[in-house]
Amino acid sequence: MNPSEIVIFLVSISIMLFGARSLGELVRKVNQPIIVGEILAGILLGPTLFGTIAPETYNSIFSSSKNISIALSGITNLAVIMLLLVSGLEVDLSLIVKQGKQAALTSIMGIVLPFAIGFGASYLFPYQMGINNESMKLVFALFIGTALSISALPVIVKTLIDLNIFKTQIGFTILASAMVDDLAGWIIFSIILSMLGTSVHHLSFEMTIALTLGFIAFTLIVVRKLINYILPIIQEKLTFPGGVLNLILILGFLSAAFTEYIGIHAIFGAFIMGIAIGDSAALSENTREIIHQFVTNIFAPLFLVSIGLRVNFIQNFDLVLVLIFIILAFAGKLIGCGFGAYWGGANRREAIVIGFGMNSKGAMEIILGLLALEYGLIQEKVFVALVIMALVTSISSAPLMNMFLSDKSKYSFSRLLNPKYIFISDSADKFAVITELVNRIEKDTGIDKDQIISEVWEREKDFPTGIANSLAIPHARIDIKKPVIAVAYHTSGIDFGALDGIPSRVIVLLLTPKTNNELQLKLLAEIAATFRDKERSEEILTFTKKEEFASRLLKLATLSNA
Amino acid sequence: MNPSEIVIFLVSISIMLFGARSLGELVRKVNQPIIVGEILAGILLGPTLFGTIAPETYNSIFSSSKNISIALSGITNLAVIMLLLVSGLEVDLSLIVKQGKQAALTSIMGIVLPFAIGFGASYLFPYQMGINNESMKLVFALFIGTALSISALPVIVKTLIDLNIFKTQIGFTILASAMVDDLAGWIIFSIILSMLGTSVHHLSFEMTIALTLGFIAFTLIVVRKLINYILPIIQEKLTFPGGVLNLILILGFLSAAFTEYIGIHAIFGAFIMGIAIGDSAALSENTREIIHQFVTNIFAPLFLVSIGLRVNFIQNFDLVLVLIFIILAFAGKLIGCGFGAYWGGANRREAIVIGFGMNSKGAMEIILGLLALEYGLIQEKVFVALVIMALVTSISSAPLMNMFLSDKSKYSFSRLLNPKYIFISDSADKFAVITELVNRIEKDTGIDKDQIISEVWEREKDFPTGIANSLAIPHARIDIKKPVIAVAYHTSGIDFGALDGIPSRVIVLLLTPKTNNELQLKLLAEIAATFRDKERSEEILTFTKKEEFASRLLKLATLSNA
To answer: Could you tell me the fold of the domain covering B7-405?
Structure first.
């Protein structure tokens, strides 16, 4: 690259990162997954908008020289490989095994039905579904089937955490099923790729399949055990975390090279190797964190933005096709996973939540589409429809799940803790501290404070709410929609009639909706559980700043509510 | 890139990372800076060895297609830009300002003399120094002068930490001076580049110089303040650490693009922007850590290995030239910085240590040489000589400094703490615990244990060594070369006559060389200082596992010895 190429190369990377970050943060503000913003940034920066408004500037930045395009494609190639490697790290094989019948049925139905729908529709109506080359009808139908079966683990994880159901039974079912569906989806896709005969040395279809299955078995059994054995040694003997970081990338790149070589694309190898590495208990959090942050914040955005740079989303927008894909996606996952979960023992409400939860297609869908586009399997309008479908399913997943989640699953002590409502108090007595607590959150409830105080006080007079280990939980059910919590740390302690006779220093006011008895019981239990361990409770009480108290409390609550 | 190119691209990156890590760890085992190993890996993997032994395999991996070379060069370009960005982050402007006359004289002399020597030798004997194009004599001489003036901050930091003098007066002087010399060296080099007229739009020499100085002033004054203002906001409002990571890279890439555009190479802009960003107190350790680990473990090795891939180090090896460069490098830095430090108030010994400390040339030298080679300023044999000179100065720095460092600077409590010699004891009395302590370290001293015990006991009987806050330091000067320390945690506490009357629970045995009174006093003071704070001392005493005790003790010692 000559100096002027280097200048443009650097500027284009900067613009891509800047666009991804800006849009990513924007969508985050409205509680959407960041990757949605990153993909949108690419559409805005690509031929769809920027390239249409200012074609000359656009061309001089993103397609002025072949060298720059090659260098950029080198980086986005590495980026997508690393993205799949990190996605693989997130797959937890033992979690899959531990989840029982419900997850098994959810995941199987979550593949079978969407695949059947996608395959059937494309095989019967190939033109309507946008086939590119009619001699490839079978491969095309297989591809659409796969595209509807796959799900996007990273987006799903994010959604579950946002909804605070990551470590609940529903969460585990969704997670385990999504992992299985991802793995199965990629395996089916690798078979499709081998049917296309894209291997470097033109291996036969049977040979490619045999090598693929051999690679999966070898990596997930032999290599996984080897890594589990070798990782602690590397972490101890080599520079930390440099040695492990290199090991992860080297293994990832080499298996990517291998799968690319046998004709099933590099990312598949990276994904499988990611699973094998991520499974090791020896892999330290610190290492995961470094690689995760760098990949999701630097490499992934570069790849996600590059998607939008390839296609004009307005020119290739076909409303009917977009609607068909969205409807098929929703139908497949909602019915498939929903019934799977229902048969597995979930109630109707939970089954619907699981169905919507499994519907996020995120970046996986798009990566698949991109490859299909490159191999001439689909037209650009199908690619555009797939991207839009991926965005719609990812965006709609959290709000739709939220609609069907019960309050009990939605709220937890740790989630309701708000630093704004945590304070230090030296009130003279029980009534004074309760008044102080109510004063803090009065505005949030929209109810007259005297009324709240009297409700809490009535309860407190009859049954004192001191628990043990310095904790008291004055509480009441009042006329509100969402539960509210305030916490006072009392400097000298107040007698709330605790069982161990010790004055209470952590006083948690809990107000819950009048109609929901179950929710109150659940939250009371969670708060009590947080302070069950004497030593840990005492640790919370030693702090120097208010912020420290708040963060320790939150940490302990998160731990014990998990 | 087609599939077979992607395969080779991934394999070559994997091999580069693997080679860098292997050689890097190898040299680390013999206490050498890792970058030395990474550069050596490149030489072994390049035309020098691998390319000579197996030219066909070599070509098929590293130079089979133009696309792969371009993609690799895109990545190494980003790598070296990020490397300089991270190096810039390590520069601490306030440290430079705080260091007084000594650092000022050291850094000025550390540029003036090496530059004069390099310039003089190259201007007077251009052929012997390996000039490529005699019409460029002035630029060539300026370049050699700069090459001898620059130093490698990352290697120097590593050496100082290894020698345990990072936070001493000598360490600060070396650090501040190296920062100034690096900055000055790059500014001079940017002037040289502008003389070559390499700007994208062929700006005039004067214009380039004006823009360069303007860029430096603007970045270090205006942008630095802006970053300091904006960083806390970004850390709070945007995703953390993603937002900051992107900000750092975007700013780094954009300033790199700017300086490349005005004709003084991208890395200069990244370096200056790194300084401006790193200066902000708001930049969190976590963010620094992520970017530092990823760049030094992934990108830097790719760049460092790529150096060796360019040149055959045997074919272009010119012993005389290598010796000349090594001699000039040592002469310039040792005499220049040594005298500077001496005039600034250092004693002769310290001055020599500072001189050797400033001599590491590390990767900076090589980056400079690489650019000079690309611009046709030097021949390949000069480049080879520069690389070897950089390796020799980096390797020799630590051992030479160590030779001249006094024992007092070399040893500290935290450095002497060895987990092997830290244990839990429940001995019955003072004599028993001292015996136990001596038993632990007897082998390390090579002296009869009864003799040691009697020496310690004599001292203890006359003047009990209990200090306060549960600490006692039984000690003796015996016939050993290096000081030794053992630590017992006594479960119930033993009366060592401490001033606060509290039985001692942390009993530190300190044995120092007979001849060195000063060293004993210094270490006693350091151990006492570690336990000066009552609260912190008590914190050490609450632990559940022996390892926890050891690590807390080490942490506190490191903190208070700093």
So the answer is: Na+/H+ antiporter like fold (1.20.1530)
Question: Shortest CB distance from A242 goes to which of B7, B67, B297?
Answer: B297
**A-contacting residues in B 205-244 (Cβ below 8 Å):** 237-239, 241-243
CATH of domain B413-561: 3.40.930.10
pTM of the model: 0.80
In this chain, the answer to whether the domains covering B7-405 and B413-561 adopt an identical fold is no
Min Cα–Cα distance to chain A from B66, Å: 10
What residue in B sits closest to A234 (Cα-Cα)? B25
The answer, yes or no, to whether the previous bond of B241 is cis (omega within 30 of 0) is yes
Q: Which of B69, B246, B268, B304 to mutate: most A Cβ within 10 Å? A: B246
C-beta of residue A514 within 8 angstroms of C-beta of residue A523: no
Query: Cβ(B239)–Cβ(B257) under 8 Å?
Result: no
This complex has an ipTM of 0.79
Look up tokens 């000579």; give the residue.
B52
Residues shown for chain A? 562
Q: How far apart are CA B267 and CA B279, in angstroms?
A: 18
Within 8 A of B74 by CB-CB distance, chain A residues are 1, 9, 70-72, 74-75
Cβ neighbour number for residue A87 with a 10 Å cutoff:
28
Give the count of beta carbons closer than 10 Å to the beta carbon of residue B283.
Answer: 21
Q: Does B6 touch chain A (CB under 8 A)?
A: yes
Query: Domain locations in chain B?
Result: 7-405, 413-561
Report the chain A residue with the minimal C-alpha distance to residue B237.
A25
Interface of A with B in 259-298 (CB under 8 A): 260-261, 263, 266, 289-291, 293-294, 296-298
Question: Average pLDDT by consecutive 10-residue portion of chain A (562 residues)?
Answer: 88 96 91 88 94 91 86 91 89 80 92 95 92 87 92 82 76 87 85 74 79 92 94 84 92 95 86 91 84 90 92 94 96 95 90 93 86 88 94 91 80 82 88 91 84 89 86 91 90 87 90 85 86 81 77 78 57
